[in-house]
């Protein structure tokens, strides 16, 4: 049993909850007495996840929408918090876009940043606002989790838009952790490796140490309960990534696969 204030969140908000890691986390936390605030763009899939969570005893508050809708998601977050104070907000929604031609590079970059970066801002900023107003001070019942990626450690030539957008939210989450530490609000950055989900289903390149989504959700939940600053997995990818970021630049240039190959993943 973990002794941190974040060990047993009672009200959890998850964006991108209709599939992949978001869905697995919703099902992981679902239980009697738990309130789950779930968002996604696909109503049918979101309803299916909500029904599965309710079957396990959880109460759900759903929002069908896009994280790029700043006002829409803000009002939903405020409404969720008013119904049941949010203990854990997981900014999970994201896309993995790439382009195999020069003409598609700009659109892939813009859309990636709109969802992977601005979408995270649209989620965590309203959540931090409602959490920071709680009393007594410092706050003891609020935590934010930002979904980055193992690719956020190094700029990847095969996926410049995705890897750089995930690097941005990784750095932002790390900065927020320091900024809100004295206020008592925990902030964790999650950096998964390859996880078996729709996001990578059409990936034709190698996916070393591919992990099942339920195992990924369990690792994430345990790390959040301990208020870890960063949750990076699997352990093999942690070692490879740490080696990669410390290689001399000339060697990284040799290893970084040239741009122009087919895109890694499709839009979720």
Q: Would you kindly provide a written description of the structure presented here, covering whatever features stand out?
A:
- With 268 residues, the chain is of the alpha/beta class.
- The chain has one domain: 3-Layer(aba) Sandwich (Rossmann fold), CATH 3.40.50.720.
- The C terminus is likely disordered.
- Helix 1 packs parallel to helix 2, helix 3 runs parallel beside helix 4 and helix 4 packs parallel to helix 5.
- The chain is globular.
- The protein has a seven-stranded parallel β-sheet with strand order 3-2-1-4-5-6-7, with helices on both faces.
- The protein has eight helices and seven strands.
- Strand 1, helix 1 and strand 2 form a beta-alpha-beta unit.
List keywords for this structure.
SDR_fam; Short-chain dehydrogenase; alpha/beta; Rossmann fold; NAD(P)-bd_dom_sf; oxidoreductase; 45% helix; disordered C terminus
Condensed summary:
Keywords: Oxidoreductase. With 268 residues, the protein is of the alpha/beta class.
Radius of gyration: 18 Å
The CATH superfamily title: NAD(P)-binding Rossmann-like Domain
Which outline best applies?
globular
Segments where pLDDT lies below 50 for 5+ residues?
A: 261-268
Content of β-strand: 5-15%
What do we call the CATH topology? Rossmann fold
- Give, in spatial order, the strands making up the sheet with the most strands: 3-2-1-4-5-6-7
Secondary structure: number of strands: 7
Helix content: 40-55%
Number of helices: 8
Mean pLDDT: 89
What's the main sheet like?
Answer: 7 strands, parallel
Please, how many domains? 1
- What would CATH call the architecture? 3-Layer(aba) Sandwich
Question: Could you spell the SSE succession in H and E letters?
Answer: EHEHEHEHEHEHEHH
Question: Which structural class fits the helix and strand makeup?
Answer: alpha/beta
Distance between the termini: 36 Å
CATH top level label: Alpha Beta
């Amino acid at each position: 049993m973990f002794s941190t204030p974040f060990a047993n969140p009672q009200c959890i908000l998850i964006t991108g909850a209709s599939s992949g890691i978001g869905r697995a986390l919703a099902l992981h936390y679902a239980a009697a007495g738990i309130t789950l605030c779930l968002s996604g763009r696909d109503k049918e899939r979101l309803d299916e996840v909500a029904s599965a969570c309710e079957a396990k005893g959880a109460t759900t508050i759903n929002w069908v929408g896009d994280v790029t809708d700043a006002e829409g998601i803000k009002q939903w977050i405020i409404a969720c918090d008013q119904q049941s104070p949010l203990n854990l907000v997981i900014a999970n929604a994201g896309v993995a876009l790439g382009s195999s031609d020069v003409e598609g590079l700009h659109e892939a970059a813009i859309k990636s940043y709109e969802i992977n970066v601005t979408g995270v801002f649209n989620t965590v900023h309203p959540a931090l606002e409602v959490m920071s107003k709680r009393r007594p001070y410092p706050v003891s019942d609020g935590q934010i989790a930002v979904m980055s990626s193992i690719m956020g450690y190094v700029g990847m030539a095969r996926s410049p838009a995705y890897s750089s957008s995930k690097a941005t939210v990784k750095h932002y989450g790390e900065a927020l952790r320091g900024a809100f530490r004295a206020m008592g609000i925990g902030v964790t950055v999650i950096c998964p490796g390859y996880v078996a989900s729709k996001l990578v289903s059409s990936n034709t390149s190698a996916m070393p140490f591919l992990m099942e989504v339920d195992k990924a959700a369990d690792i994430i939940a345990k790390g959040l309960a301990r208020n870890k600053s960063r949750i990076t997995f699997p352990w093999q990818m942690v070692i490879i990534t740490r080696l990669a970021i410390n290689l001399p630049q000339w060697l990284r240039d040799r290893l970084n696969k040239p741009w122009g190959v087919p895109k890694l993943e499709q839009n979720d």
